[in-house]
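User: My collaborator sent over this chain with a note saying "see what the structure looks like." That's all I know about it. Can you take a look?
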Amino acid sequence: MKEKGLLIVISGPSGTGKGTVCKAILDKNDFWISVSATTRSPRVGEIEGKSYYFLAKEEFVSKINNDDFLEYAEVYGNFYGTPKSKVLEMIEQGRDVILEIDIQGALKVKDNYPEGVFIFILPPSMVELKNRITKRGTETPESLMTRFKSAYKEINYVSKYNYAVVNDNVDDAVRKIESIVSAERCRVDRMKETIFDCKEGLMHEQLYD
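Assistant: Without extra context I'll predict from the sequence alone. Here is the result:
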């Protein structure tokens, strides 16, 4: 029987480089990245089914009522959510699924799919985090301080995750996550069917030897 894939949930405060890490992982591995749904309008260059699934608000609400999302939230009047069916379909097919998501969304996914692998990306230090956010050049002094304070609070959620990876170097962070995924595949509670098949085969050999 084909082994199920893993749901690998990656999140962390703004400025930790989780998007860069996820892109590097996807460049090296045959993982499937989950695409979110939203009710906001497409922006220039965004592609349906690749950037987001763009839904009318009525359709999104209908899917909420049908329990079609692993998690969802309303942000500034628009809904965002992670479609459940495609993620579970890929996992059943044996594909590992990457879900890059904010911390609140990740904790909701954990409630709905606790067997997922939850990885928190940390900066090397708060000084480096502030430097990374500043280098973007998109923040005012006020918004920079707001983001920094928010990141400081969000780091407290690290204890809710299975693993923490410090992103001081993207390649090193990717290697650590790949090692985590390899270890997770070897967990006994994920190998019940394989172990059962081995025991059944051994009993058959003993009976008919």
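A starting point for your reply to your collaborator: The radius of gyration is 20 Å.
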